[in-house]
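Much of our argument rests on the idea that a fold can be written as discrete symbols. Part of our work consisted of pairing the sequence of a single chain with a tokenised description of its backbone. We regard such an encoding as a compact summary of how the chain folds. The amino acid sequence and the backbone structure tokens for this protein are reproduced below.
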Amino acid sequence: METVAWFTVIIAGLIIAATALGLARVILHLVAIKRTLGNLLGGVEVIAEKTSTLPIVLPSVNESLRPVREFADTL
């Protein structure tokens, strides 16, 4: 009976070790995904900043083009 008990403990230990190794790999993959998503989010924020709308610049552009508009209205 003692042999069967030790065999059960060894098998249970192997199962627990395999499960712990699998969970450790999942954790490492999730950390890598988090880092990749952080870089991706940073890139998206840069793109959003560079392609923002024109309300800040638009009034000065309209003012610069006022003579052209007035000339076009006379035609």
